[in-house]
């Protein structure tokens, strides 16, 4: 049962092949065995078992099971969940419990909450290495042949010099799925935080169109307006299933020439070409397209993202909730000490940068100009899709996952800029994108490829990705 698709798990529960409690217990047991992965910040064992038992009581009274009834899910620790603390992997929020909306939608559909998953502090990072709970580790290791060739040892819980990063910042959610401790997991994706670790872990990572859902996944259950989120679309959204695509003869797939960068590993480049050739051999039309402005995207993103961080983080002042220092000399001193103790260097660095860009004398030259560049990037995609292209095909990451000690040689800001090069422009344009496992590298590690679709054509995008995956 563990390791099956969400649809297969749901069908098995409906058919009585396994009960919600039995499945919950299996996931909890496996979670204990894989604790060294550090996938969870909080394991909600009592909550999960209680939810599963309540479902069984309803079922015995004649209630039929729905699509998510009894299905184990995990939720990244930057989503509010009922009765469970949200920490964002930060000292600033330890012990804070908040009301929720989007997770409640899943729980109302019968999903069983296995726990909150680990991440980079406040989702700021690309390795899941910079949170207060420590780094998330990876179930994958180098292939036996590669280890023998390079004298690498298989990574394990006591071999910090050899284990691999998960990617980030949703590494805990991806690790929870890959370790079979949940059937689905929520992440968030501001610059690639869901797709990046999905590629490194060999699972599917999906970022929906901006505004389609309240920044979440498990799309058919979560899509639609959230009254507490003004960025979500107002129009009703009909739940959709993915039709079976029998052939790709009518598809036009674009290959953006600007993404053939010098930093791209030769192996990932080869697999990218192999995927394009496969589509072409099956009858799809493959064309080279141009996206003129992606080289400006990372800088533009840095300005906009840090500006929003600085603005939003102003609420963490130690007064109403979250961490508060013991200094009582003055209000200003309390603010400063609270934020210094509560935030790590990566978060503070982004706050400082954002405040600089938002200064009155800098606002037009940085924030406003970055918004104009963002529109140019979005227009690039619109022009390509209006030319008849159905989806774009690009790599998800520059290479397969790297060892932890190699990864942490660079600072958080530099690592994020490097690792988000293929994912981040999608966020600037508000488009849907999905990372699909492509193959194993020569080192025996997963490589993911990314499909990008037009805004709100999520169903078409996922249908094509499903065909490719099969």
TrEMBL record:
The keyword Flavoprotein does not apply. GO terms for molecular function: ATP binding; glutaminyl-tRNA synthase (glutamine-hydrolyzing) activity. It comes from the Eukaryota. The keyword NADP does not apply. Residues 31-143, 217-462 form the Amidase domain. Keywords: ATP-binding, Ligase, Mitochondrion, Nucleotide-binding, Protein biosynthesis. Its EC number is 6.3.5.7. It is found in: Mitochondrion. It catalyses: L-glutamyl-tRNA(Gln) + L-glutamine + ATP + H2O = L-glutaminyl-tRNA(Gln) + L-glutamate + ADP + phosphate + H(+). InterPro entries: Amidase (IPR000120), Amidase_dom (IPR023631), AS_sf (IPR036928), GatA (IPR004412). GO terms for cellular component: glutamyl-tRNA(Gln) amidotransferase complex; mitochondrion. GO terms for biological process: glutaminyl-tRNAGln biosynthesis via transamidation; mitochondrial translation. Belongs to the amidase family. GatA subfamily. Subunit of the heterotrimeric GatCAB amidotransferase (AdT) complex, composed of A (QRSL1), B (GATB) and C (GATC) subunits. This is Glutamyl-tRNA(Gln) amidotransferase subunit A, mitochondrial. It comes from Nyctereutes procyonoides (Raccoon dog).
